[in-house]
Each structure stands twice: as structure tokens, then as C-alpha cells.
Amino acid sequence: MDDDLRALRSACDRALAGHGEWRPETLLAAIPADTVPDRYGDGGVVAELEAEVAEVLGKPGAVYLPSGVMAQQAALRVHADRRGRRTVVCHPESHLIAHEEQAFERLHGMVLRPAGNRYGLLLRADLDAIAEQPAALLVELPQRDLGGQLPPWADLVEQVGWARQRGAAAHLDGARLWEASAGYDRSPADVAGLFDTVYVSFYKGLGALAGCCLAGPDDVVAEVREWRRRLGGTLFGMWPGAASALTGLRGRLPLMPAYLERAREIADAVRDLPGVTVVPDPPQTPMLHLLLRTTPEAFPAAARRLAADEGLWTWPQAARTGDPGVVRVELPVGDATLALTVGEIRTAVAALIAHG
Hints:
By secondary structure, this protein is α/β, with parallel strands linked by helices. It folds into 2 domains: 3-20 and 255-353, Aspartate Aminotransferase, domain 1, CATH 3.90.1150.10; 31-251, Aspartate Aminotransferase, domain 2 (3-Layer(aba) Sandwich), CATH 3.40.640. It contains 15 helices and 13 strands. It has a 7-stranded mixed β-sheet with strand order 2-8-7-6-5-3-4, with helices on both faces. 48% of the residues are buried.
């Protein structure tokens, strides 16, 4: 983001997506003054967060880590070593495949085997093509690259059963488990209870500082804690992120149903706009994708006009699609989205394609 765009964003007093701009003063204000610091991840607010996350997810234990990339590498490495297998089955658009620079292959000597169609949800029927015995099945809930879609609950149960029958671990990429919980209308513990291990993020839907937890059986959590140190993640003081996470968990997890309701209200408000497609329609979680009939060049110009004229920040740019006349944006629903009226959101979306 260039300096002019950064200044334009800072001048906006409203935002469309998520919880608004990540302002340092706001994030730091979410750290209580009486926070008890840890020392290399032991004690203090880090231990408090780990205990609370374990309780919320219904797991025996949890460990705090600075990033989800590290958490999932560590958990899947533990599952692989215990089973003497090296293959992890996952969706073709899994974060592990798309965004981690082949970390599993290069650092752990493991193999990621995609299953299913990249444009569709991973379903139980897709696993029939896998003959080998994997170390783990990784399921992402919700599927972010598909607009926050969820597989049917019964199918999810069958996927986990498939892993169990093959002696494989079932691991949940729950970076947005909080949103999935609202979509299934089940508690986080109900969803997490299907899986052996669960990773949850704090900076996405909960709007905290960067950081995450890995939850599961005590012995697995203990091994992940050792891998955290090996991978350089046991920092001298981890308390700022942990304290911020506790604030976000307690304040925003109860709001997930309201965020989901707003996502569906937005879909109802914009689906009839010419040149707008809602994905999925209706939204299944507190997020959605919008396919907009405009060009990659026209979109940022329209977004800048909205920011300059209305003080409303939307997106700096949009993702390209296979159609050069259509772009895609992701709309996670949060506090900032709730602060706008549905009419204001409809007007903003229409403005983004008015000059396409």
C-alpha cells in the first residue's frame, strides 16, 4: 500500500469489512493494564488464555503459538511421527498448499495430498480416491476461498469417520472456527469435538493481535509445545498477543450470530444489483464473497473515490478471476460492518461497479 493510499485509509471514519482498520492504539487498548506477563510462554496471561481456549473447545489442553503456520506444522508433524506416515490429505486450496512456501515438504519431509475439486467443498465422496494410509486428514472450516462455505454436518462427521477407519488423525484448520460455529448453530466445542486437534486464530474474526492456539489431548499439546521452541516460536514474552486474544475471545465470540445475520442481510440487499453475485448465496458463515462486474483497473479507482468522498474504506484492490471483466472481494463481517446500515452497504457496493 503506497503512502497516499495509507493516508486516505487513515482519514476514513468508517469501514465496510471486519472490525475496521487495525489501529495500534485500539489494539493496545485491548490489553488490560493489570495483565500478568509470561516468561517464555509459561504462566501469566498465556496460561490463562490456554486454559480458557481448552475449555471453550472442550479439549484437555491448548498451547499458544505466534502463528497458525507454525501451529499446524507442529500438530501435523506430531501426528505423522506417531503414525510413521508422511501424507496429509487436504483440500487443493488449503492454506498449507497455497500460502506456506512448501514448508511441509522442505522442513518436515511430509507430503500434502489434495483431494476434491478446488472450486468445491471437500466432501466425503472425494476421499474415495485416496487409497494410501495418511497420517492425517485436514479439514478447513469454513472454506475461506469458497466464500466461507461449510460442508453439511453429516458429511463432516463421515469425513472424520473416514480418517478414523484408516488410523489417521483428524485435524481441524479452524482459523475461522468461531464463524463456523455460528454457521452450524453449534458451540465451538461441538465442532471441535469431532477432531483430534484444532487450530484457532485470534486476529481474524476476533480482531486481536496476531497469535493462535492449538488444542487437543495433553500429550499432543505437550509435543506441540516442544515443536514451538524448535521452530523459534517460544518468545521471551508472549503476553501482549495472549491478552489481546482473551479480550477478543470474550467480547466477540458471543457476537458471531449477529455477524452471521448481518452477512445474510447484506446478501439480501445486494443480490439484485446488476453485476453483483453473492458467493455463497445465502452466506453460511459471517463472511461472503462478492463477484463484481468491473475490471481490476476500475475497481481501485472506485474504491478510492468512496474513501475520499464518503470517508468509507472498502478494499484497496480486488482479486482477479478467470473473467477479465469480473473481480472478487471478500467481506468478513465484524463490528465495522454492523456500524453501517444495510442501505449504506448496498450503496457502497453499487458505487464500486458504477464505473466498471
